[in-house]
């Protein structure tokens, strides 16, 4: 077992990883920027190292500063959390070269799945198919070739960045006359966000659902799919409510269970063929018919991993650490059982009435509901903490479990009703999405499991059909 782990992240995920390390008796090191000097994750760790000024490019994305912090404190493992450097091949390589264990997939796997075009090719090789699209990158400057490729795919289509995910740069194109502009815009965003201007095109799935499968692989032949998560409640192509199992109609009944099993097996084929090690998520997009297409692999822990933990009783961070320490998957992981239903709401400092614009400010009042076996509060903020514009405005994840989906939703709604959080910004009170989360949970279509990736934004804009 690793003896000392540096957590190369901040906020709620840093606190989450630190909590498991402490339970396992592993010494911990936090890193922080000047903006996070008084953050909860810094106080939780046994040691803390300053790595730079507030902007992430000068602190949490500075590879040599984080590796040097591990060397200086004697950490023998680095957990990257999610986001930031968690899927960065160069970071994983630097960690390994420093003689420190990277708690994540090998650099070669990060390379294979970090490039979305390569990932699509890899999935095809494993017999798991993405939506029809271009086999390689599209040159935005070659308008005629791009138009020919688009016509073969059909409109509407998606233009996507090859170098990253999270919906960054993604463009939906319904009008052939707007294709060239969409290609250029996506390429520019890809270059700015990922240092990679390459783009590709694929068919746009109408009324899509976003469904993902949690996997664990020990690198010794042990691999398991820990169920699927429904992640279709999104804004700006990013999730705000997630649940497991998926309530989609095409997963109901005997035929639905067969489709669910096929989905899990497909996810395992994709990762095991690549020599995957650690925790990861294989993402799919589903058409209304239930036809499932490969999207990508997130080669790290996901924000929404907690709902899987609530239904399996497993600590995924613990098993990440055990795998990185060279242990095989334990029998309780390989033979896990699923219990009930779990649902998570992401509480953000953002204003749904203003297209979910971030709302920086100081936390001036804070009260959480009582947590327990069936309710978790995952947070990296405390009263008096400044929510700055430098980082993602996630305040907390509130996760509820129940024997049925209806009971889990009701429990989460009660928890949100019992939550108080007030932010004071430079110009007065700042907004959160707390009330909007309750609006989602109380919506009839959501309660009926009849929602897709367009649902949340339409609800916020008052444009939901019916």
Automatic annotation (TrEMBL):
Domain Biotin carboxylation: 1-461
Protein name in UniProt: Biotin carboxylase N-terminal domain-containing protein
ATP-binding is among the record's keywords: yes
Residue stretches making up the ATP-grasp domain: 120-325
A UniProt-annotated Pfam family: CPSase_L_D2
Organism superkingdom: Bacteria
SMART domains according to UniProt: Biotin_carb_C (SM00878)
Gene3D superfamilies on file: ATP-grasp fold, B domain (3.30.470.20)
Keyword ATP-binding included in the entry's annotation: yes
UniProt keyword terms in alphabetical order: ATP-binding, Biotin, Ligase, Nucleotide-binding
